[in-house]
Amino acid sequence: MKNNTKSSKLGLIISAFITIIALIIFVYVRIKGMPSWTNGVILLCAISIFFANIAIYKSQKNKDNNSK
Questions:
Q1: Quick check: 15 and 53 in contact, CB under 8 A?
Q2: Does Membrane count among this protein's keywords (predicted)?
């Protein structure tokens, strides 16, 4: 079970970096004055994936705690 927690933690870290990159790109595009709805959609998808990975990580952590 520890491997599942480690892999979900890695997924959480990767999705956090992706969310930060999407946010930077979204702000950059807004500053440059070329807004696009696709950038907003990408940002929302990155945020939703981040929160989904948080839920998966908490679930795996609870499974590990219950199996002890």
A1: yes
A2: yes
Helices (H), 1-68: 2-32, 37-67
Q: To 10 degrees, the CA torsion angle through 10, 16, 18, 23?
A: 180
Express each pLDDT in 10-63 by its tens digit: 888 999 999 999 999 989 998 988 877 888 899 999 999 999 988 988 888 888
Report d(CA 46, CA 16) in Å as an integer.
Answer: 8
- Residue 15: exposure state from Cβ atoms within 10 A (0-12, 13-18, ≥19): buried
